[in-house]
Write a structure and sequence with these properties.
Two copies of one chain form a homodimer. By secondary structure, chain A is α/β, with parallel strands linked by helices. The first copy, chain A, is built from six helices and eight strands. Chains A, B: Keywords: Isomerase, Metal-binding, NAD, NADP, Nucleotide-binding, Potassium.
Chain lengths: ~230, ~230
Amino acid sequence: MEANFKHVSFEEMSGIDEDYDKECKYQVSQLIELEGFSAAQALYYHNLETNPDVKEPKVLVIVGPGINGGDALVAARHLKFFGYDITIFYPKRPKKEMLENLTLQCENISIPFIESLPEEFGSDSYDFILDGIFGFTFKGEIRSPFKEIIDQIGASGIKIVSVDVPSSWQCDEGNVNSTYTPDILISLTAPKKCSEGFSGVHYIAGRFTPKFIVDKYGLSVPPYEGCNQFGKIN
Amino acid sequence: MEANFKHVSFEEMSGIDEDYDKECKYQVSQLIELEGFSAAQALYYHNLETNPDVKEPKVLVIVGPGINGGDALVAARHLKFFGYDITIFYPKRPKKEMLENLTLQCENISIPFIESLPEEFGSDSYDFILDGIFGFTFKGEIRSPFKEIIDQIGASGIKIVSVDVPSSWQCDEGNVNSTYTPDILISLTAPKKCSEGFSGVHYIAGRFTPKFIVDKYGLSVPPYEGCNQFGKIN
């Protein structure tokens, strides 16, 4: 399905975000809650399908400094409520009220925060890494400490689940920094141009896009099942 | 399970709401989104279990002037995205930004708003009424037009699904106004004292209560299945 799916450019996705704000009056805290929940639900079903014996997967959630990090904090909280064994690594914490609130909500439910990646960091360390470092707006060079973190997770052998875009990829140009390719990609609202050739497992999260936005940008609608908040396209 | 479940008083529920705000820093737009989604999901599964042949149930969502109405607007939007045939009746619309935004989000996805209940209003009109008129803070007399609306829905023979508490019931005292008893109750966070003797179908919606709040108020935890946001207790 990936090949026939509409992949949006940076400009189109920026336009959609503006329409969510101006035309839909979606509040950031509302939208981020829906996005993070959708991502958590996609991972939950993915694990159920691929590792049904692992009831409490160990997931390391890596949180970047922006909105993509906020999505990851929301997903971490919901996964914890689903019974997952969650750890958060959040190396750069901006002083932004919304992100501080989302952090508190994770601390409040006893999710441990680690200060660095474990010294012995390999495929046995976690069942999944949920990568919420950078989103579709990332451009330019990867600065420290994220350069080292991205290299380490890429080399770890742990299954990587990227939220929205693989961190360090550019929305239109793709993996220009020659970093890792995730096993699983959970695109928010629509797949981005960078994932056109992606051959891993691909979910679209976000069953909240009104038809007028679907029509305006010519989006493809994922095959949503039941009341699921995600659809699988690859 | 109802009989063994902790039912909270008005004072306890007010304390929980204060803790959601002060201790969890849950934003109203975030919490209402979670509550409304949970209620929509509970109704979705309820219909799947009881009316599996009705794929696109007709639901009249009645929206009151406060936060309970906000929950109902969120539930209406999600149910529409699930493919339901939704109509909204929202007779008194306060000029509050959050409620106006939630209203716009329903208008944006072509949910029709009606100005009065249909003249021929009986058990064939809708599969369900989602009652989001009043929540657990309701006290005193039922004013017009809600008095007439509540009488009409009670007499309609349509299955009524109440969000949080049956509208016009008082949290601690119950059905003091001798109005209707719903078929299905979707309590938010915890069942209220008024539902202690309730014998209908009862869901608890809201898988977002941290353990410290569960412990502080001695709450019972519903049997959440999978990644469902609701648990069935009756």
